[in-house]
């Protein structure tokens, strides 16, 4: 739809990927403190019924280590990595190279679909509003997203879960506090410039989502994780020991729909400029 698709570079925690399915799915085996990657591309196709579409995968591939098609690039907790998205004069699809600076390992995926051809970027400028035409988020072409609202793929097969549900650690403050946070160190664009602003958005409204299934915000399994600035970079989760600024915690997310989208005006949550 709109000639656009949605690419994800999915990092699977505590997991070594064994396959990346053509349906966009994945198979992993448990391996503590490791990360591996698939990169599915999602599109909407017509079902033949007016206004009814089906989301399916136009592409999916494993990030390999260069030694063979079934050998994933394996990264570890605490490693420093870079993610580089780029195109080439060949126009053969968006390229993404992940480099592990800790181990010097690297891998590259080229988004060249067997049935849709080369998948090229839809926008050339990183700005709020250059968003997926059929998406439910008013954001930017490139974003970091922590996919919350799922239980473990190992104990519950990644089942969908909601705030207030026991075992749904996405909304559990102590669970976040018990982790070592991600460190987002910097962003550099193709012309060598650095990011001038940082923004956050929740597609379901942050606290609005929590209060749909919790009687009050802040109780057991009833928080919404937030972005914070720490001494070692941007984090996601809760306030960690090195937190400098937390931007109002979950209040950093807009809680009413005031931006446009495929369903008209005031149908999506707007971004909040944090810094």
Summarize the structure.
With 275 residues, this protein is mainly beta.
Give a quick set of tags describing it:
275 residues, mainly beta, 2 domains, three-stranded antiparallel sheet, 18 strands, 4% helix
Computed CA radius of gyration, to the nearest angstrom: 19 Å
How many strands? 18
Largest sheet: 3 strands, antiparallel
What order do the strands of the largest sheet run in, or round the barrel if closed? 1-4-5
Beta-strand share of residues: 25-35%
Alpha-beta classification: mainly beta
Note the gap between the termini.
33 Å
Residue runs with pLDDT of under 50 for 5 or more positions: none
Question: What is the typical, i.e. mean, pLDDT?
Answer: 96
Oligomeric state of shown chains: single chain
The share of residues in helices is: under 10%
Order of helices and strands: EEEEEEEEEEEHEHEEEEEE
What does this structure look like?
The chain has about 280 residues and is mainly β. The chain folds into 2 domains: about 1-120, no CATH class; about 125-275, no CATH class. Helix content is about 5%, strand content about 35%. The chain has helices at about 175, 205-215; strands spanning about 5, 10-20, 25-40, 40-45, 55-60, 75, 80-85, 95-100, 105-110, 110-115, 115-120, 200, 225-230, 235, 245, 255-260, 265-270, 270-275. β13 and β14 form a beta hairpin. It is globular, with a radius of gyration of 19 Å.
């Amino acid at each position: 739809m709109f000639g656009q698709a949605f690419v994800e570079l999915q990092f699977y925690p505590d997991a070594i990927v064994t396959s990346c399915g053509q349906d966009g799915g994945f198979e992993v085996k448990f391996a503590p403190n490791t990360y591996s990657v698939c990169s599915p591309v999602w599109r909407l196709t017509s079902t033949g019924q007016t206004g009814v579409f089906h989301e399916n995968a136009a592409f999916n591939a494993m990030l390999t280590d260069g030694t063979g098609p079934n050998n994933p690039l394996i990264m570890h907790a605490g490693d420093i990595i870079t993610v580089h998205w780029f195109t080439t004069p060949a126009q053969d699809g968006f390229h993404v190279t992940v480099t592990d600076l800790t181990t010097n390992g690297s891998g590259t995926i080229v988004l060249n679909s067997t049935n849709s051809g080369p998948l090229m970027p839809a926008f050339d400028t990183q700005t709020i509003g250059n968003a997926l035409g059929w998406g439910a988020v008013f954001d930017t072409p490139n974003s970091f997203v922590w996919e919350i609202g799922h239980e473990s793929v190992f104990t519950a097969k990644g089942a969908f879960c909601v705030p207030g549900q026991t075992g749904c650690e996405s909304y559990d403050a102590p669970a976040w506090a018990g982790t070592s946070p991600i460190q987002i160190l910097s962003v550099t664009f193709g012309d060598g410039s650095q990011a001038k602003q940082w923004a956050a958005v929740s597609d379901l409204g942050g606290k609005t989502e929590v209060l749909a299934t919790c009687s009050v915000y802040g109780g057991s399994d009833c928080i919404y994780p937030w972005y914070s600035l720490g001494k070692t970079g941007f984090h996601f989760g809760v306030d960690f020991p090195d937190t400098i600024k937390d931007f109002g915690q979950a209040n950093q997310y807009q809680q009413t729909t005031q931006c446009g989208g495929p369903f008209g005006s005031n149908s999506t949550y707007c971004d909040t400029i944090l810094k």
